[in-house]
DNA sequence: CAGGATCCAGCGCGATACTG
DNA sequence: CAGTATCGCGCTGGATCCTG
């Protein structure tokens, strides 16, 4: 159940991936990276995320030191989110994946089409 | 719901992340990358994955053209999995993330400790 | 406007049992 | 050994309502 066996790093990598791989975390980081600073509802609208998930994810990201939360006690309240240096630092690796994705999605789609076409008929015959 | 709003690439990036971000997909790719070729139960043991998830994930990865499946109709049967060129090509970006993780996990843990310490007491005062 | 609280549906995923 | 089929629970995450 937790026996990542011989692959010790796996657990740590896993840890990070459960954050980095989380669609909302990634999208938020990307958005904040592009826009610099965004307010709660701006993020909400931009990403089409429910405010529950936005709230939860932002708190997690803040907790992890990835985003800054600036609270302005005005009326109405105004909260601005932006990336911390740590948050900035992950943009590179993230972009790598993004680029790979954009470059290889066609290949993937193609592979899928091929796979689906013969839909597992003669797997062993050949 | 589906309104990724202005962020058109987001949906595609999301697509890839739901695969790349999937813990099992990643671990399988990493394992196959390290060992070259592995059999079903070898992967199962190495990763501590249930055979259900392993089966499902492998099929997805095969469908996406990321892994090769070589079936040997011997008795007992023997199936060998390995990375395709496409699968190989994602190892780089993946390693980027992994490296980032290993380098920054301490910073994250630290940030968390700090966050948890003041556990959201004076959020606006200070 | 920013977000907490609640409720609830869906499916992710593990455990188990069976097959070729 | 390499899977498939089934069941069941827990967590994810959206919808909704409410507050400061």
UniProtKB/TrEMBL annotation, chains A, B:
Coiled-coil annotation reads: none
Alphabetical keyword list = DNA-binding, Transcription, Transcription regulation
**Pfam families named among the record's database cross-references:** HxlR (PF01638)
- UniProt superkingdom: Bacteria
User: Which PROSITE patterns does the annotation name?
Assistant: HTH_HXLR
Residue ranges of domain HTH hxlR-type in the record: 10-109
What GO MF annotations does this protein's record show?
A: DNA binding
Q: What is this protein called?
A: Transcriptional regulator, HxlR family
Species: Roseibium suaedae
Q: What is the lineage of its organism?
A: Bacteria, Pseudomonadati, Pseudomonadota, Alphaproteobacteria, Hyphomicrobiales
């Amino acid at each position: 159940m937790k026996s990542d066996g011989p692959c010790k790093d796996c657990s740590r990598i896993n840890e990070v991936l459960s954050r980095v791989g989380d669609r909302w975390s990634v999208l938020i980081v990307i958005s904040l990276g592009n826009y610099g600073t965004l307010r709660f509802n701006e993020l909400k609208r931009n990403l089409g995320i429910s405010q529950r998930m936005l709230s939860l994810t932002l708190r997690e990201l803040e907790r992890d030191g990835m985003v800054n939360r600036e609270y302005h006690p005005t009326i109405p309240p105004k909260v601005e989110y932006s990336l911390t240096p740590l948050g900035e630092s992950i943009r590179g690796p993230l972009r790598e994946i993004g680029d790979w994705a954009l470059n290889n999605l066609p290949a993937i789609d193609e592979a899928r089409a091929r796979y689906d076409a013969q839909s597992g008929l003669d797997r062993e015959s050949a």
